[in-house]
Amino acid sequence: ETGVTQSPTHLIKTRGQQVTLRCSSQSGHNTVSWYQQALGQGPQFIFQYYREEENGRGNFPPRFSGLQFPNYSSELNVNALELDDSALYLCASEDGFSYEQYFGPGTRLTVT
Amino acid sequence: AQKITQTQPGMFVQEKEAVTLDCTYDTSDPSYGLFWYKQPSSGEMIFLIYQGSYDQQNATEGRYSLNFQKARKSANLVISASQLGDSAMYFCAMRERSNYQLIWGAGTKLIIKP
């Protein structure tokens, strides 16, 4: 196991609602990235946070937003949910010195 | 432009045989890392092996080895003596030194037959 945890494991929401997903980084890791993985596809980068600041963003609309806290845990917020937001959301933490990212088990979001 | 290409959507392999999963990549950054991850049906992304662009030797981790051909921009994963538990999706990914994100291929679904 990587030491990265995510909650909740599964979530069902209705179109138009808002959702918050949470990620707890591995100890000592100050950087967290979020990815969206639609069914049958590879993950797509959403954004990265480094020491509480957004460090980069992929091609996702502003209704996808995030936070990183002083203990380096993180949240992904999605407003005005759409059916296409149904996916597995993965977070990954890293120490900023090596290339490797350590992934959590993911949150599976279903939007109906 | 697609930077990671995995041309095998699915593969069936007999148990105990070796299997090669293909991955080609494209980058202009001389410094980059290549990764292979395994994703079982549970969804967790499991790190398998890493190859740095300046590494002189091919990476190996137990039954996994990476056939790195820099001039051809390929980074194929070789699994020796396949096991039933190897059945999963396999993703190739790249991270450039100049970038902060992992760029992923579309994956290969590997099924090991008993």
Task: Provide an overview of this structure.
The complex is a heterodimer of chains A (112) and B (114). Chain A is mainly beta and 112 residues long. Helices cover 0% and strands 51% of the residues of chain A. In chain A, the strands form 2 sheets. In chain A, strands 2, 4, 5, 6, 9, 10 and 11 form a 7-stranded mixed β-sheet that branches. In chain A, a hairpin with a 2-residue loop joins β5 (44-50) and β6 (53-57). In chain A, 35% of the residues are buried. Chain B is globular and about 45 Å long. Classes of the chains: A mainly beta (112), B mainly beta (114).
Features:
heterodimer, A: 112 residues, mainly beta, seven-stranded mixed sheet, four-stranded antiparallel sheet, B: 114 residues, six-stranded mixed sheet
Task: Report mean pLDDT of chain A, rounded to a whole number.
Answer: 92
The sequence of SSEs of chain A as H and E is: EEEEEEEEEEE
Tally of helical runs of chain A: 0
- Rg result of chain B: 14 Å
N-to-C order of helices and strands of chain B: EEEEEEEEEEEE
**Largest sheet of chain A, described in full?**
7 strands, mixed
Shape of chain B: globular
Secondary structure elements and pairings:
The complex is a heterodimer of chains A (112) and B (114).
Chain A: E1 5-7, E2 10-13, E3 19-24, E4 31-37, E5 44-50, E6 53-57, E7 64-68, E8 74-78, E9 87-94, E10 102-103, E11 107-111
Parallel strand pairs in A: 2-11
Antiparallel strand pairs in A: 1-3, 3-8, 4-5, 4-9, 5-6, 7-8, 9-10, 9-11
Chain B: E1 4-5, E2 10-14, E3 19-21, E4 24-25, E5 32-39, E6 46-52, E7 60-61, E8 64-69, E9 74-79, E10 88-96, E11 103-104, E12 108-113
Parallel strand pairs in B: 2-12
Antiparallel strand pairs in B: 1-4, 3-9, 5-6, 5-10, 7-8, 8-9, 10-11, 10-12
